[in-house]
Amino acid sequence: MHEKIIILDFGSQTTQLIGRRVRDLSTYCEIVPYNKFPFGDETVKGVILSGSPFSVNDSDAFKIDLTDIRGKYPVLGICYGAQLMVHASGGEVSQPDSREYGRTHLNVLDNSDPIFGNLPQNSEVWMSHGDTIVSTPENFRLTASTEDVKWAAYRIEGEETWGVQFHPEVFHTEQGVAILGKFLDVCGMKRDWTPASFIEVTVKELKEELGDDKVILALSGGVDSSVTAVLLNRAIGENLTCVFVDHGLLRKNEFETVLDDYEHLGLNVIGVDAKQHFYKELKGVTDPESKRKIIGKGFIDVFEKEAKKLKDIKWLAQGTIYPDIIESLSITGVTIKSHHNVGGLPEKMNLKLCEPLKLLFKDEVRKIGLELGMRPGLIHRHPFPGPGLGIRILGAITPEKVRIAQEADDIFISGLREAGLYDKVWQAGAILLPVQSVGVMGDERTYENTIALRSVTSTDAMTADWSRLPYDFLAKISNEIINKVQGVNRVVYDISSKPPATIEWE
Fold first, then answer.
1. For the chain, which end, N or C, has fewer CB atoms within 10 Å of the first or last residue's CB respectively?
2. Rounded Cα gap, residues 227 and 249, in angstroms
3. Active-site choice (30, 100, 160, 169)
4. Of 87, 129, 167, 382, which residue is the catalytic one?
């Protein structure tokens, strides 16, 4: 088991970012709800308290007794976490005349401090809080200030406990990674959390857990399930059977291309052509949620049918990753979403669940895949929705509409690759709109379909901005789609950000 840092989540939007920064420093960490500290876990070496949307003065704020944590572990409180420790110790936290938000500069006051010592003066930090620390008990020592915030950082004497009112985890805090790194040094972390070490430990654990049991895995063609497959293949070899279902809503030639990729990896894969089954079930259905449910149910039906042909399957493997797990944890009493990728299958088929990537972030999954020797083209593919083109064809789905969407999407994606733009955007695709418009081709009047191109930049899909693709590139792609894709006479470009829009249209 890896030694770890525990991040107590008080509901901040940047809690996952704290985790990613700690992992970037080759240190294993886990995010847990603020009231679920793993007492008794001897691998815990330090604790970080996250920010929160609440004020410590709110009656419904998330609060815990830190008596059994402070003094026993090194602690770093960030924003709300720092204020919580002051509030709980009898200090004063209150709302200033104006909210402190945005860039400011840090003045380090104690150059001997293990965390703030030797940091450059006047480095930029990012503030984002409604309350501020006004006064502290005597054993709280001031370590850094900004022009407007006296208690920008402190240390509690007699403890390895620090608090900062700025956010070291965000990009705008210039010395944020250095501050987190120094805290990890105080915790005595070895910084040995690497892709190679993860693979070594995980393969060993999978061999012990699975033994000679047989495992089935539903492949989607995406990064997460593919890396899961290769990792399991390294651990149990032929005892893993993968099923890749073509629901008729994949990208052009994707079924054949992905199967070729998997053959290259030496995986035992069953490819199932189920296009006609899905087209039949989706005929005439226009409601987006209904389409999703039909595609989800159809996938389960096909997968279950294939699984029954196999003997002695005891485990279902899934490409669940850490953000899925975090979002399924509840700190408010409301679960955001269930994390099971193949809803209900483990219980329905009486299988145990195997999720070897469930503690990794997306960027870590990609690093693991490259370390495993997977093709970069497979690792760096854009995210593609499970329902595929089913939610990029607005309105009822027909084989003809799938053809149009596939052809347009292929021109767009191929064009991004040829122009060297593919790796600069997070996700891109073509959406077939239920809109026809008048056009002119040659001497003839046309009344045909509209394609909307969608391309966004993002780091985690929680927020996204539309890609500023070159006009000449967009003009070239538009002309090519209209000239080559029969049934399209108009192309538009989506310039909406998320929020308020979403990345996909349905």
1. N
2. 22
3. 169
4. 167
